[in-house]
């Protein structure tokens, strides 16, 4: 497919006897956010390290569009990839613009390009008015945004973000999401590593879920949710006396006193049929509430464990 920007096949990395990543494959397309989701220690950072060429895999290979690989042309490969590391990598006592200049210089950009790109990326992350200020005076969220700006200086096709919202206030988190949405709209391809399922749900077109170094599922959100036995639970509050016999044979129903939890594949589609069946049986309903399935439920279904520690 021509839209493929990065294809990783069979990545493996062990540290001594500990296998951090085992047979990880993924495909990243233009204008797409790929969410790399997994609990602490699942192997996300190690995978990102291999994608950006900082960590050498024991096996497997990453190929960029045009057939560019690290082995064939390291400089060309690295020019196409930007890394936003998990740990903020800034000179705290140098002004924001100077931090960006240093990043640009690392990529050998000419001075004029550096000046122009610095203005562009500062605007992209919403820090244009803080160009002359030092990161030491920034909030955690502003530092994160400058960290992203650094990775954009050489205008890479692919941006790898390793937990870019760690320790960030809600306002900066939204600013980061806006920045990433704008990059996506420009056709950049993003890998977004997180153990926050809400972030993955909000941003990611495709998801690769990792656990203990292995891919346990990958696909679009719809494909992942389809793996759940029931996508949603509808909570029904009963009105008045209802005998158990009146509910007999209704599929997916669990009764707790006056409450029914009903597993439905699709609340929007299946609620009317359920209410009709209850009405036919003379069962009166006082209230309804739906609980949407989340990626947390998907992870639990796949691994039997919660996503967060
Ligand atoms: N340099 C290293 N030396 C030894 N072990 C390592 C090294 N880097 C990672 N590991 C181990 O590899 C496994 C995967 O770690 P990794 O940092 O890739 O996970 P992660 O999913 O990014 O976790 P987190 O969300 O906590 O950052 C862990 O067991 C970790 O201890």
UniProtKB/TrEMBL annotation:
GO MF annotation list: ATP binding
Residue stretches making up the ABC transporter domain: 6-237
SMART domains hit by this protein: AAA
Keywords, comma-separated and alphabetical: ATP-binding, Cell membrane, Membrane, Nucleotide-binding, Transport
Taxonomic superkingdom: Bacteria
A Pfam family reported for this protein in Swiss-Prot or TrEMBL: DrrA1-3_C
SUPFAM superfamilies hit by this protein: P-loop containing nucleoside triphosphate hydrolases
InterPro entries: AAA+_ATPase (IPR003593), ABC_transporter-like_ATP-bd (IPR003439), ABC_transporter-like_CS (IPR017871), DrrA1/2-like_C (IPR025302), P-loop_NTPase (IPR027417)
Full protein name: ABC transporter ATP-binding protein
The species this protein was found in: Pelomonas baiyunensis
